[in-house]
Specification:
Elements (H helix, E strand, L loop, with lengths): L1 H21 L7 H17 L23 E3 L9 E2 L2 H12 L7 E7 L2 E8 L2 E7 L5 E3 L2 H4 L15 E9 L1 H13 L8 H9 L4 H5 L3 E7 L11 H11 L8 E3 L2 H14 L7 E8 L2 H7 L9 E5 L5 E12 L4 E13 L2 E7 L3 H7 L6 E7 L3 E7 L24 E3 L6 E3 L5 H12 L11 H10 L15 H5 L6 H14 L4 H7 L7 H11 L2 H5 L3 H5 L6 H12 L1 H12 L21 E5 L7 H10 L3 E3 L8 E4 L5 H8 L4 E3 H9 L3
Parallel strand pairs: 2-11, 19-20, 19-21, 21-22
Antiparallel strand pairs: 1-6, 3-9, 3-10, 4-5, 4-7, 7-8, 10-11, 12-13, 12-15, 13-14, 13-18, 15-16, 17-18
Length: about 675
C-alpha cells in the first residue's frame, strides 16, 4: 500500500514536470505540487528502502561526492566549427551544396551554457556527464538530477543517450548574484560561468539551489529509432519528455537561413536566457553521414557566433605612421582578435592626448570596440591585469620615415612632419589619389605604389599618366605580366573621364572629403571656376565653413599645386562636373538611403553616385532617420532592422526604375 502510494506520487509529480517544462502547460498549481512532494519526502524518510532512483525528491540535492569520476563518451562529443559573418555563412552553404542537392537546414539558437550528455536505461536517468575534451568527460549525475527540466524518467522505457545544454536563466542569474553580494561573495561574471560552476559542485544541494535549466538538441544514434532527420530527432526527444527550444526552425534556402540569423542577431536580448550564436545543421541525417567529419568538427554543421561588441586583447606595441598631410599617428599593434565578424590586429590610437588620457601602455590588456560598427578603437585599459612590466607611452618627436623634427600645432592634438620631401607623405598622397572614392584606379595596392615610388616611376600625381612610357620596364618586374600592366594602364586612362568631384577629393586638399568635393563640384562646375573663388565666396556655400574655405584658398595659392593641376590638364584629365543637373525635387532629394544585399545591375559605389546625383545621401547604418533602404540579393541585418522600424524598402529593380525617370 505504501509503495503503491509512493509510485502514484512519483507519477503525478513526473507528469506535472512534463506538462510544465516540456508542454509549457501546467496542470496543477505550485501549491498542489509542493503538497505531493512533501508527502513523498515523508514517505521516503520513513521507508528509505522503497525510494526509487527516479524519485522527484532527488531534485532537492544533498548528495555529496569526493571527486568527479571520468566518463568516456562512446560517441565523441565534438565541438562545432565557427563562422563569424555573412560571407562565411554563404561559403558554408556553398560547401554543403557541392555534395547535397537542395539542402534544408535546422536552425537552432546556440545556448550559452554547458554541454551535457544524458544516458537513460529502460527510460530511467542513470548518468549525466560533461563534454570534457570531447572524448572524456566528468560524471555530474548527482547535480543533473537536481535540474527540474531534465526528466528522471522518460515517457517510454528506452535505452538512449541525448545531448544538450545546461544553462542558467537571466532571472536566476540576477537572483544568485544578489545573494552572493549580500553574503560578501564574489558575483559570477555571466550566466554561463554560473551554470558551469553550479554543475561542478561536489555537493548537489548547491546545484539544486541555483535553478538550472536545460535544452536538449542532439540524438547521437538516431538511426536506432528509425529517425532520418534532425527535425524528426527533435520531435522525438520532445515526445520522450525533454525540453526542446521552441525557437528552432527548418529553412529551405540561403535567404531563409540569413533571415533567421539576422532576426536573432537583432532580438537575442529579448530572450530570458543568453545565446551567443546560431547553430546551422544539415537536416538530412543520411547527408550528415555522407559529409562526415574533419579531425575536429562535423562537416555538416557550423556555429555562427554573434559579433562581439567588445573584445579584450593584448597591446603588443605602438607604431607611428605618417599620413598624406604629414600627421604622425600612434597605432596599436594587437594580438589578433575577432570583433564583429572581422579579425583586428591593428587600430589607430588617434593622437598623444588620446593615449595619455587613457594611460595606454605597451603590454596592456585593452578593450576594443568598433566605432559606428566599422572602425576599431581602444576604449579602455584593463588595469587589474597589469603585471608591472608595461611600458608607458612616449610620443615620438621625430618623423618615423625621414627623421625630421615634428611640430604640434597649438589648436590641435596632432603632431606633423613638415618636411615637404618626406617620402611617407608623398607615398600616402599617391595611395589616396588612386583610392576607390578618389580616382578609383584599379590594380594599385599600397605595396605596388611604394615599389613604383622607390623605383622612380611615381613621384607625383601627374606621373600616373606617364606610366605607359615604362610599360616594357614594368613587365620585367616580378609578378607583372603584359595583361596585368595593360589592365593597370587601361584603368589609368579610364580615370581621365571621372567627374570633377573625384579629382577634387583625390588631390588631397586638407579638410575636403568626398562629400565636400561633391558640393564644390556641383556648385562651381569646373576646376578653373573653383580656383578663382576667394574666401568669402567659398564661405557662402552651404556646408563650407571657415576652416574648409581657408584650406581651399591656401591650396590654390601654392605653385606646386597649380603645377600639378596644369600637368593633369595637359594629360587630358577631366576638369568638369559630369553629374546630372536636377533642378526639380525628386524622390531622392534630401533623403537618406542605406544599401544592403548584393546588387546585380549596379555596384554599391555606382548606386551611391546615382543617389547623390539625384540629391540624396547614403549612409552605412539603418536608424529612425533613414528614409529608404535599397535591397539586393541576400540582404543582411539592415533589411531586418528596416522592417522593424517600418522604413520604406525598395527592391533593386524598383530603385533602378526610379533612377531612370530622371535620366
Amino acid at each position: 500500500m505504501i509503495e503503491t502510494r509512493m509510485n502514484e506520487l512519483i507519477e503525478i509529480l513526473n507528469q506535472a514536470n512534463y506538462n510544465y517544462y516540456v508542454l509549457d502547460h501546467p496542470t496543477i498549481t505550485d501549491q498542489e505540487y509542493d503538497k505531493y512532494l512533501r508527502e513523498l519526502i515523508k514517505l521516503e524518510e520513513k521507508h528509505p528502502e522503497l525510494k526509487r532512483n527516479d524519485s522527484p525528491t532527488s531534485r532537492v540535492g544533498g548528495t555529496v561526492i569526493d571527486s568527479f569520476n571520468k566518463i568516456v563518451h562512446e560517441v565523441p562529443m565534438m565541438s562545432l566549427s565557427n563562422v563569424f559573418n555573412e560571407s562565411e555563412i554563404v561559403a558554408f552553404d556553398e560547401r554543403i551544396r557541392k555534395d547535397i542537392k537542395n539542402p534544408n537546414y535546422v536552425m537552432e539558437l546556440k545556448i550559452d551554457g554547458l554541454s551535457v550528455s544524458l544516458l537513460y536505461e529502460k527510460g530511467k536517468l542513470v548518468r549525466g556527464a560533461t563534454r570534457g575534451d570531447g572524448v572524456t568527460g566528468e560524471d555530474i549525475t548527482h547535480n543533473v538530477k537536481t535540474i527540474k527540466s531534465i526528466p528522471l524518467s522518460l515517457t517510454r522505457p528506452l535505452d538512449i543517450e541525448v545531448r544538450g545544454e545546461i544553462y542558467m536563466s537571466k532571472k536566476s542569474f540576477e537572483e544568485l548574484n544578489k545573494k552572493r553580494i549580500k553574503n560578501g561573495e564574489e558575483p559570477f561574471a555571466n550566466p554561463r560561468n554560473a551554470a558551469a560552476g553550479s554543475v561542478r559542485q561536489l555537493d548537489s544541494s548547491i546545484a539544486a539551489s541555483r535553478n538550472l535549466d536545460a535544452f536538449l538538441y542532439h540524438l547521437p544514434e538516431a538511426e536506432k529509432y528509425d529517425i532520418h532527420s534532425q527535425e524528426q530527432a527533435l520531435h522525438f526527444m520532445k515526445e520522450l519528455g525533454f525540453i526542446v527550444n521552441p525557437n528552432i526552425t527548418v529553412v529551405h534556402n540561403l535567404t531563409e537561413l540569413l533571415d533567421f540569423t539576422n532576426y536573432w542577431t537583432e532580438h537575442r536580448n529579448d530572450l530570458p536566457y543568453e545565446i551567443d550564436g546560431i547553430v546551422i545543421k544539415l537536416n538530412d541525417l543520411d547527408g550528415q553521414k555522407r559529409l562526415g567529419f574533419t579531425a575536429k568538427y562535423p562537416k555538416w554543421a557550423t556555429a555562427y557566433k554573434f559579433p562581439a561588441t567588445l573584445a579584450l586583447t593584448k597591446l603588443k606595441d605602438i607604431k607611428f605612421t605618417v599620413g598624406r598631410t604629414g600627421q604622425v599617428t600612434p597605432n596599436a599593434i594587437l594580438e589578433p582578435v575577432i570583433l564583429m565578424g572581422s579579425t583586428i590586429s591593428k587600430t589607430t590610437l588617434h593622437n598623444e592626448d588620446y593615449v595619455k588620457e587613457r594611460d595606454i601602455r605597451i603590454g596592456d590588456t585593452v578593450a576594443i570596440k568598433k566605432a559606428g560598427d566599422v572602425i576599431p578603437e581602444v576604449v579602455k585599459v584593463i588595469e587589474d591585469r597589469r603585471t608591472g612590466d608595461e611600458i608607458p607611452f612616449e610620443m615620438t618627436q621625430t618623423c618615423p620615415i625621414c627623421g625630421s623634427a615634428l611640430v604640434r600645432k597649438e589648436t590641435e592634438a596632432a603632431y606633423y612632419c613638415v618636411n615637404e620631401h618626406c617620402d611617407a607623405k608623398k607615398i600616402e598622397g599617391l595611395i589616396h589619389f588612386v583610392s576607390r572614392n578618389a580616382m578609383n584606379i584599379d590594380g594599385f595596392g599600397d605595396r605596388i605604389i611604394e615599389d613604383f615610388y622607390n623605383m622612380g616611376y611615381l613621384k607625383s600625381l601627374v606621373d600616373f599618366y606617364d606610366l605607359h612610357q615604362y610599360k616594357e620596364e614594368l613587365m620585367e618586374l616580378e609578378g607583372f605580366g603584359e595583361k596585368k600592366i595593360q589592365n593597370l594602364l587601361d584603368s589609368i586612362e579610364q580615370s581621365k573621364e571621372n567627374s570633377l568631384e573625384r579629382l577634387l577629393f583625390a588631390l588631397g586638399i586638407r579638410y575636403v572629403g568626398s562629400k565636400t568635393a561633391k558640393i564644390l563640384a556641383q556648385q562651381f562646375k569646373t576646376m578653373d571656376t573653383l580656383m578663382e573663388q576667394d574666401f568669402e565666396s567659398l564661405n557662402q556655400v552651404k556646408d563650407i565653413g571657415d576652416v574648409i574655405a581657408k584650406s581651399i584658398v591656401n591650396y590654390f595659392k601654392q605653385d606646386k599645386n597649380l603645377e600639378t593641376i596644369q600637368g593633369l590638364k595637359d594629360h587630358h584629365v577631366n576638369m568638369k562636373y559630369l553629374g546630372n543637373e536636377i533642378n526639380e525635387e525628386t524622390e531622392f532629394t534630401n533623403k537618406t538611403f542605406v544599401l544592403t544585399g548584393t546588387l546585380e545591375h549596379t555596384t554599391r559605389e555606382e548606386a551611391k553616385t546615382l543617389i547623390e546625383n539625384l540629391g540624396g545621401n547614403v549612409t552605412g547604418s539603418v536608424s529612425k532617420k533613414t528614409d529608404v533602404v535599397v535591397v539586393g540579393a541576400n540582404p543582411g541585418s539592415k533589411y531586418t532592422k528596416a522592417q522593424s522600424l517600418n522604413i520604406p524598402i525598395w527592391q533593386e529593380q524598383e530603385f533602378i526604375e526610379k533612377v531612370q525617370r530622371y535620366q
